[in-house]
Amino acid sequence: MGNTAVLHYRISIMRKLGYKLPVFFILFLLTGLAIFLHSRARRLVAPPRNITHQTPADFGMTNWQDISFTTEDHLQLSGWYVPPQNESGAALIFVHGLGSNRSALLDQAAMLAEAGYGALMFDLRAHGRSQGTRSSWGLAEVADVQAALQFLQNQPEVNAEKIGIIGHSMGGAIAIRAAAQLPEIRLVVAESVYTNFADNEERLTVSFARLPAWSAPLVMDWAEWIAGVDSSQLAPQQEVASLSPRPILFIQGGRDKTVHVQNGSTLYETAVPPKARLLIPNADHNNLFATDPEQMSQRLRQFLTQTLDF
Q: Is the distance from CB of 175 to CB of 189 less than 8 angstroms?
């Protein structure tokens, strides 16, 4: 092959590659974007394990136990149990939010344990030290609460007629949903809870997927597909009225950027008495108790005393 022929051959190859390179580049970018979005969507379904190194002893509780119990779908959940310290036998189930763990409400549990209440704090499925590979944002987690309830009912020092539940964020939505299905739960405290999951997708995408709000429709649809969940079913506003005549207390932070304060107002308006509401003006989504422990302690104790006849 002469030099001229070789040159023409090389030019031909370069032209062919030149046509294909933009296609390869676009495919490379799209593949990278898909992998990135998938990883971010998975954070909403299977958030990184946040395993606590704290214990109730760090908050002054001495009479506590490491415990585990099993859900009806055969997942072993890990938690702490603090027995009630008075004749009433009243006890509370504490439910944390997405990506958190059993220690999330330790400060509140310690305050209430000091007042004599029993406490059961546990890691939801796919969180902390509990089994499970993914969250369902509150659908399957009702089974977690049911197993926790059964654990308390089996403790001789617990009065099965005086068991309440305190939940934060997704845990608050779970608390409402669980109480709607489990009449043995005598009262609910719902902290930083959304009216429904779908209307808060943009804020949840920013807070948990760490992506801009405009990406919410794509990311949340992807996350729903991974989880096998229809988020339209996650609507505490549709369930909260069914709790009556059992009482509910809503607590919201005035500076909450994850769940706007209007959610708490709407839930309160939808609920049927007996109901109460507490707004902590300077608190954000996660620091309600830390922002105003005095007011939180007073209102929680007052609410529990009135509703559990403690």
A: yes
